[in-house]
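Researcher: I've been going back and forth with a colleague about how ARMD3 protein might be arranged in three dimensions. Neither of us has a model we trust, so I'd like an independent prediction. The organism is Chloropsis hardwickii, in case that matters for your notes. Sequence below.
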Amino acid sequence: MAQPEKKGGLLRKSSASKKPLKEKVVLMYDEIFTTEDPSKCNPRFWEELFLMKVNLEYLEGKLEALDGEELMKIKDNINCLFQHCIQALGEEHPIRVVNALQTLCALIRGVHQKNKSTSGFDIINMLVGFDKAELCMKNLMESLDSLLCAEGSESLKSLCLKLLLCLVTVTDNISQNTILEYVMINSIFEAILQILSSPLSRREHGYDAVVLLALLVNYRKYESVNPYIVKLSIVDDEATLNGMGLVIAQALSEYNRQYKDKEEEHQTGFFSALTNMVGSMFIADADEKISVQTNEAILLALYEAVHLNRNFITVLAQSHPEMGLMTSPTSPVPTTPVTPLGTTPPSSDVISSAELPLDADVQTSNLLITFLKYSSIVMQDTKDEHRLHSGKLCLIILTCIAEDQYANAFLHDDNMNFRVNLHRMPMRHRKKAADKNLPCRPLVCAVLDLMVEFIVTHMMKEFPMDLYVRCIQIVHKLLCYQKKCRVRLHYTWRELWSALINLLKFLMSNETVLLAKHNIFTLALMVVNLFNMFITYGDTFLPTPSSYDELYYEIIRMHQNFDNLYSMVLRLSTNAGQWKEPASKVTHALVNIRAIINHFNPKIESYAAVNHISQLSEDQVLEVVRSNYDTLTLKLQDGLDQYERYSEQHKEAAFFKELVRSISINVRKNLAFNTLSQELLLKEFSTIS
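Model: Here is an independent structure prediction for ARMD3 protein. You can compare it with whatever you and your colleague have in mind.
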């Protein structure tokens, strides 16, 4: 007997003489797409429909094939289908609930495709009808809330979250998605928290829950009171906050692991041998090839948690085993669509410190370390738009952390030392640092290392001015804390001073090109004021008196750069051009640096002449510096330890609007509702009567 084959909703025999047969569910869909009430001839129509396996492709395709006018003709049947889907969510039989959830997803996506040019209100009318919208959406949200909070099927919870993600991301700009008004009124915030606080639910659904929360928080956040913002800002339950932190840490760890694996592949491959052979001249190309797609959604979730909830700051330092070293548990993992690296939920389970005891031989980590490693990867290449956005968001998160008193306390804590292996961009003039030689230091050292690394590696024609400004601001905020609390940090400050001086040198060398696009004097002033901070207050936070001497040595050794900067800003401040005012600010800021150079240089030359030495050693210069402090006169400069606090609404609204749009498109593209096969569901729901 010829085997029936299934294709596009049709069942056909191998024999060409027979007419193709349609699946029953497809025939039922066709009845809905007429102007007649399908239950007129068959009173059990809706009951039977939700026992049939959903054909998502056919249903969505059918909706998309209709024009606006044709869709309006069958509006009553669409409304009826939507309402019966909501009713089916309350059924005892899980198969009906699953089919109703999948049907709702297809309906929402299909109707939206047809209404792209129209307002959200038209979509609401098309799906439920204005007169019944409030009640229907209330019932829908209550049903989803019950399913998410119930002890029941994990597959159902997974589908509920996917439906909610579908609902949220149906428009590119989520603030124009009027359906979300009902999600605001009928909050599912507590259901999301319950998922994050339970180890089992978190392992299965944590990723989707965190992404959903991050998107909901961004709905009309500047125009109205968003209940999800209010509620997120006051969460103080430790288990919930730790759960959220672990989901984020796991997703970032997964990205870091994928990047490391790709990096190792390239290092051991033919390309590595080739680059070594020709002197690493193609290093930039190699780096581009090992890029892994960034995960802005999870980064946005981290930002919202850090920015909105002060209690979350404690989660950043919560110790857990290094996730890259943990073995994956054997428990089943929910099926996820195959999508580009870094965009899907991490494959290995999220484990809390309570769930897995710390092993003395395993390096402990925390969310902040994982985030710093992630940042060190995405900030390497800012030419790609996604990485540029990710890099900017990383720096915004670090800005929020650098302003927080409690965060600074654990960043600078001498009793919390970690070995943080940041990724460093391959460069011809330096060797790759050996991981094993990394010292254990307070976490602030890793933050400063990351800032120094960025400063050193991004002096290029396409100059990322905005990122540099944020970078210098972070360093400044950390110094303000150290000065205020008299924290003497044992750090290799010379690396920072050298990076800052080289940055000034770069700005001067590329003055013409950079001035055509940027006000470089803003950045130059910030850099000069960092040196002024060290000069004025360095004795209160530099680790030893010799560190202060070394600061003067670096300024004197590199005096030519400061002299050239002074000449440049003096030239522009005496002209009547557009740069007169910003350049003159730098001129005034250089007063103490010039005083140091003009005071010590003649004394060094005199010492060399008296002792008949053509070139002084570092120790000899330091000896001259130490013996001539008394006669040095410096001006007291005000406001060096003051800064403007971060404000999202006034300065970053446009960036976040664009970022959330990009995330919404990406989440929608990667959503898959048919990942649960009917066979698996039948097996899971074998109790169905």
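Researcher: What would you highlight for our discussion?
Model: I'd start with this: The two ends are 32 Å apart (CA to CA). After that, consider the following. Residues 492-648 form one domain.
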